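step 4 of 6: structure.
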Amino acid sequence: MSDVISLADIRRVFTMGDQQFEALKGVSYSVAAGEFVAIMGASGSGKSTCMNILGCLDRPTSGQYLLDGLDVGVMNSNQLADIRNRKLGFVLQGFNLLARTAAVENVELPLVYAGFNSRERRQKALMAIEQVGLAGKENNHPSQLSGGQQQRVAIARALVNSPAVILADEPTGNLDSTTTGEIMSLFTTLNRQGITIIMVTHEHDVAAYAGRQITFKDGKIISDSQTGQLV
Amino acid sequence: MDFLQTVKIALRALRTNKMRSFLTMLGIIIGIAAVIAMMAVGSGASYVISQQIASIGSNIILVIPGSTTSGGLRTGSGGVQTLTSDDARAIMTDCPSVAYASGTVRTSGQIVSGNMNWSSVIMGGTPEMFEIREWPVVNGRSISQEDENSASKVCLLGQTVAENLFGSADPVGSIIRIKKIPFTVIGVLERKGQSPQGQDQDDTLFVPLRTAQRNLVRSQRSGIVGAILVKAKSEEVIDKAESEIQSLLNQRHRITNSKEPDFTTRNLSEILAVAEKSAKAMSLLLGSVASISLIVGGIGIMNIMLVSVTERTREIGIRMAIGAKKNDILLQFMTEAVLLTMLGGLIGIALGTGGATIVSRLLGWPTMISIQSITVAFVFSAAVGIFFGFYPARKAAGLNPIDALRYE
Ligand SMILES: Nc1ncnc2c1ncn2[C@@H]1O[C@H](COP(=O)(O)OP(=O)(O)OP(=O)(O)O)[C@@H](O)[C@H]1O
Ligand SMILES: [Mg+2]
């Protein structure tokens, strides 16, 4: 299988005033199409920093990031916006839905920027909502949805534009175990449909849903193990 | 992203904070309303003046007795009696740039018709006077040269005089008494309205000049006129006509360099043109004072848009994370600002138009609202939105996606 993602010696240095902090100290790994990867590690080890770089929200200080064989480092901000829109689906840490906006409209948002007309948007968004098991709740605002339901709306939004890769930063961070189970089986289903998933989590049993676990410590990868999928 | 969608998103954002949107708009509303109302009052005033120019007749030169400066002092025009009917005739025949000239006398007195009586201005003039003032008869006939030559006791009534003496009855053919002398009414003049000085021009009664000189006014010599009204052949020759009149009268009155002229010429249209110009300048001044409030309103918009960008930093982050480009964000916030000001502009136009109408109804001021001033106001309000919305929008578009997402 070809690599969707390939990181080579990625470093990220944050500068605050005259202080410098190296959050990523040379991270290299590749993810093949169709893989389900869990990223683990202690708080502050650089997981989110790495995810932001993968999601083209942030640029590495040095190192090379190839997405689908294309060097992201040389792209301008409009090209990156396009990549985020078409190739990636981002489930952000925290729910990050637009308040006072119906679920279906939140899901439609990537399609707005992709240039679909309103009929196509509505159709695709309703399909995605059904896919995450929220049919009937499409007109609820985020404040009228439970935490797990909000997270599913976020997942529906991530997959509505049929991305190659879904990036999820602690998608079950503040959910109970039942809801966590539901979200994880949703990810498993999506993964079986061929979508590459990279997911950050603190919990081993959540990580166990993935076929591969990468562990970060102090900005470096300390282990990368292929366990095969448990479920 | 299509434009319609951008407008929809912007409208929704404005609706979320209805009260705030309204208060923000208020600055623009007041500014535009003030500009519209001020322009309406100003252009109403200059319209009235231009109407008055038309009402006294165009290309008119007034010759009055007495010098403008006499030993450094102005003498009242009625003080000396130096102009005669012969002067008027000479001006008409000898000045090539002059179309018509008429000597006039003016007095006032009691007019009686049956048991009605009315006090009004009485003017004596030759038939040319009505050509000069472009003042036709609407009922009956005008004063003829024969009436003038034979000093017949006939008169023309202004509309106000006719109404006060006869009501709705037809005055033509009736006998009225002017200063106790019986006159036959031969016609009624068209309505003229107010003079530039604010007098009712229709409150006037006209008799032949010679009749007036013989029967109604007293003078030291016969043939004396109070003033001579002259109409130049065209606007282009009005200055030429004026100097022709001056040199003719200088000659006739034996005025030399050492002697002050005993008459003064005045170009009436010129005086009014100056008045019109100053009315226009006034309306421009009022308009620009009012537009200052528009700028203040624009600053209010900028302020609120900046607050809004800060408040919605997370939203901006989310939009960027799922594929919004810088330009999409820029356009979204610009659209919001422009919608705010355009909406404010529309409301302001409605208020300003309504306000001007109320002012003209209540205070009797003439107001005029032109499509032009409405268009200018609307375009200007949109421009205020673009100008003051740009900085906040650019600030939003320049945000870094992660910083925006992390913003609390
Ligand atoms: N914008 C920034 N400026 C300065 N330092 C930063 C910035 N973002 C992250 N860091 C630092 O980089 C390190 C890694 O942060 P990161 O968010 O990647 O941790 P994480 O592994 O996701 O932790 P958690 O599990 O708590 O989410 C932290 O020490 C953090 O303080
Ligand atoms: Mg994190």
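step 5 of 6: annotate
 - The pocket of magnesium ion (ligand 2) is lined by residues A 47-48, 93, 169 (CB under 6 Å).
 - Chain A touches chain B at residues 52, 55, 57-58, 77-78, 81-82, 84-86, 90, 92, 96-98, 100, 109-110, 112-115, 117-118, 157, 161 (CB under 8 Å).
step 6 of 6: archive
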